[in-house]
Design a protein that fits this description.
Layout lengths: L13 E8 L2 E8 L13 H9 L3 H17 L6 E2 L5 E2 L5 E7 L2 E7 L6 E4 L9 H4 L2 H6 L5 H18 L6 H4 E5 L4 E7 L3 E12 L2 E6 L4 E4 L3
């Protein structure tokens, strides 16, 4: 198990770690409650305006922690978003960002598009199962196992980031098969093509992490 560490004395509420996996680097930051406005120097001018637009302190902390993590991993470069809301940084390959309870993650891969998701296991995931588990998945997987259900949810969140579109039905258009405890195969169903995804799903410091292990593969349909 990897342990987080404090990086700078004046950032006592932040704990950083990184994982190298399948050609990607996952940068992680756990944080305690903090006042975001104390770290404005880590934001670009555009990001400063965006920060103050968030009304909830939780969202402000997520946003600031992500930019602090960005600064540590890459430097002072602006995070842009495409028309689907996917993040990118100019000249930095492919990135993916995820948030969980008091934790943010930034994954970077120089060669192929990646989807990262962080999830904290939680009991109330059962109340959402009807929204993201297909009928076959309900029969295949142990829906009484909170950890297993959270892994499926996390995997589908990562797949959603790889789909390239916004309106997706998690239950019928994001499908999963488990190859082993940590390695899963996913299918993203689109109108005129499907996408195959290989995923690694694992636990690190009580957080479930999902990320694709290789480039997605497109399969065109005969329509």
């Amino acid at each position: 198990m990897l342990n987080f560490f404090r990086i700078i004395a004046d950032m006592k509420d932040f704990y950083f770690n990184e994982i190298s996996i399948h050609g990607s680097t996952i940068h992680l930051c756990k944080y305690n409650d903090f006042e975001p406005t104390e770290f404005m120097e880590y934001l670009t001018d555009i990001e400063k305006q965006r920060l103050i637009s968030f009304k909830h302190i939780r969202r402000r902390r997520e946003f600031m922690a992500t930019r602090i993590l960005r600064h540590r991993a890459i430097g002072f470069q602006h995070i842009n978003y495409d028309h689907n809301g996917a993040p990118y940084i100019n000249n930095e390959g492919f990135i993916s960002i995820s948030h969980s309870t008091n934790e943010v993650g930034l994954a970077i891969n120089p060669n192929f598009k990646i989807g990262l998701d962080l999830e904290s296991p939680r009991e109330n995931i059962r109340s959402l199962m009807h929204k993201f588990l297909s009928d076959q998945e309900k029969e295949t997987y142990n829906t009484d196992d909170i950890l297993e259900v959270c892994k499926i949810w996390s995997a589908k969140e990562a797949m959603y980031k790889l789909a390239g579109r916004k309106k997706i039905h998690f239950k019928s258009e994001l499908l999963l098969n488990r190859d082993s405890d940590e390695f899963w195969s996913g299918k993203i169903i689109n109108h005129n093509h499907d996408l195959s995804v290989k995923l690694n799903i694992f636990e690190n410091n009580n957080t479930i992490i999902s990320i694709n292990t290789e480039s997605i593969v497109r399969h065109n349909k005969n329509i």
